[in-house]
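The authors assume throughout that readers already know how a fold can be written as discrete tokens. In essence, backbone conformation is discretised, so a fold becomes a row of integers matching the chain in length. A single example would do more here than another paragraph of explanation. For illustration, here is how one protein appears when written out as sequence plus structure tokens:

…
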Amino acid sequence: MPDTEGHPEAAEMELGRVLAAVADPLRRTVVRELAAAPDGTARTCASFGLPVSKATLTHHFRVLREAGLIRQVDRGNSRMAALRRTDVEQRFPGLLALLAAEERP
């Protein structure tokens, strides 16, 4: 069962949900940028500069969080997102490397 913040445990991460989350190019961009940053890097959701409304941005980050790819923490009036690198690599070895190697549009 996911924790109270909507973050599933590593063992509860489902391949179908993870693949559906990264099927969207904007969400893949978020994961790639976090994967390219030093481990433990957290960024505000707005810092990614995605060309979408605030409501759509919230949706994209919710999908990533519920799939288990990111952890979000409230920081005042914003949310910080960090890649759950260890959990993703443990559950789906090589996935982050595949995403990092993808040709960007």
The CA atoms of residues 70 and 83 lie 4 Å apart. The beta strands are 42-44, 70-75, 78-83.
